[in-house]
Amino acid sequence: MFNTHFVLSFALLLCLPLLFLFAPRILPPKHVKISLPDELDDLALFRRATLASLHAPGSISRLGTINPKPKIAFLFLTNTDLHFAPLWQHFFPNNTDRKLYNIYVHADPSAKLTPPGGVFEGRFIAAKKTERSSPTLISAARRLLATALLDDPLNHYFALVSQHCIPLHSFRYVYNNLFAESTQYPTQLPYLSFIEILSDEPQLWDRYTARGKNVMLPEIPFERFRVGSQFFVLSRSHALVVIKDRRLWRKFKLPCLNTESCYPEEHYFPTLLSMEDPDGCSHYTLTRVNWTDSTGGHPHTYRAADVSPELIYKLRESNTTHPFMFARKFSPDSLVPLMDIAGDVIFRD
Ligand SMILES: *[C@@H]1O[C@H](CO)[C@@H](O)[C@H](O)[C@H]1NC(C)=O
Ligand SMILES: *[C@@H]1O[C@H](CO)[C@@H](O)[C@H](O)[C@H]1NC(C)=O
Ligand SMILES: *[C@@H]1O[C@H](CO)[C@@H](O)[C@H](O)[C@H]1NC(C)=O
């Protein structure tokens, strides 16, 4: 005959596997939470950048002086070494064109980075912890944008890339393509932002409800929720829209309950810009990515053996009015074959 003690123990034993099964759902997700001091710190940076932009509208020059040319700010977002630093060193010009760009790097402070030196020397900005499935990647991108806005009023385009991204063309080619419609400077032309904005993603509803049901309302009705590539090239006016935003951020900064459908950085920027200025955006990205057979939210990764001139030519091809200018993802060991074809293929155009 079973005594009560035995029944209780048995029941407890039975419960153990259940606990393992359900614990991830019951316990709050162990993700980097944005602390109040960090939030206030960011807000202060965004305010400074916004104010500075009001007082220094970049392209205005005094009569008689040569109009300085607009620049591209390259924003590197990384949590590891910059695997392709040697390739980028080659990409960034060191002749008279060196005044046409700036570099900013946001490196996760917990990453033990080997300083890449060269053009990256002294270009690391004050960084905070980043993690997938959390709003910290949005914060890091906004920190890069704000720092670049503050740093140089001539930064007119802001290109976000990661350590897995490579250039597909020369700097000159990228520069001439971005500023093609505005050869006569100074100008206040509203530059187009190159950001993917899509509404037909099959998992969009799960991603919309990742923070709980109805929590995005009323600011973001499902019909206005968008998705797009994390990597974009924003105009100065849109970079300002992003760092001034408080309304959407209030919702996007909420922690995800369903971390499997949680990619805040792929939604925040496309949703915000499609609400604020849809006609000022290309709706496509300039960064090629291969989603065929993707696993766990990671796209296809090209390895050393895949690198060839043909691959570069193929990755450049696009169905839009602009060719692709960057590509991801490449494994670190791709560096050697990429360097081999850098001069003759990648930077020859
Ligand atoms: C300038 O760049 C070229 C090619 O990118 C390189 O060969 C050369 O060594 C660089 N010069 C300096 C001074 O860094
Ligand atoms: C995309 O990745 C798949 C494998 O996942 C590969 O077969 C295909 O060739 C890739 N496409 C391009 C354009 O590289
Ligand atoms: C361009 O469109 C064709 C036909 O729809 C498609 O097969 C191809 O994958 C597209 N290329 C890119 C880069 O999207």
UniProtKB/TrEMBL annotation:
GO CC, one annotated term: membrane
GO MF annotations in UniProt: glycosyltransferase activity
Signal peptide: 1-23
Keyword annotations: Glycoprotein, Glycosyltransferase, Membrane, Signal, Transferase
Cell compartment(s), UniProt: Membrane
Broad class of where this protein is predominantly found: membrane
Pfam families, per database record: Branch
Topology term for the membrane: Single-pass type II membrane protein
Descriptive protein name: Uncharacterized protein
Species: Escallonia rubra
